[in-house]
């Protein structure tokens, strides 16, 4: 499977995964709590500077950020069309800001480290008889497949653009679905063997 993780070291690679997840959660809550558009713009500028400080380590996630910018422009345009341009701008800033924060986490944190944090967070449920390892694995697989979906979409879009010179758009849905189903089947077979299901 492809990944958005970057092996190019940055200052954020040195932070523990748990701390990064905590900071991501607190930052996201703070962004939602901000109602003043000027404060949201300042927070967005600070996040852009943080993202830029990763340098080449942010390269695998740049397309994800571009997609978020396009989505936020669409959201802003829809709000402007309904007569609420400031709400659209606020929503767009929040969307791009949280996407950039998540992209920074994804680019600088190994999947195994995130899985370890998930197991630690879920460990109190073990007292209730919940199989924590399997629950953490399911959560990890969900996150990994979301990342894999984006990586596979990028590859198909690049291949289509090289062949035709145009963007793939909806034409990529069928091959993307087939690729993801094949990948899911391979992962399911590997898990069945590994877990002896």
TrEMBL record:
Membrane-crossing residue ranges in chain numbering: 12-33, 39-57, 64-81
Cell compartment(s), UniProt: Membrane
Keyword Protease: no
Keyword annotations: Membrane, Transmembrane, Transmembrane helix
InterPro entries per UniProt: ABC/ECF_trnsptr_transmembrane
Membrane topology: Multi-pass membrane protein
Family: Belongs to the CbiQ family.
UniProt protein name: Energy-coupling factor transporter transmembrane component T
Lineage: Bacteria, Pseudomonadati, Pseudomonadota, Betaproteobacteria, Burkholderiales
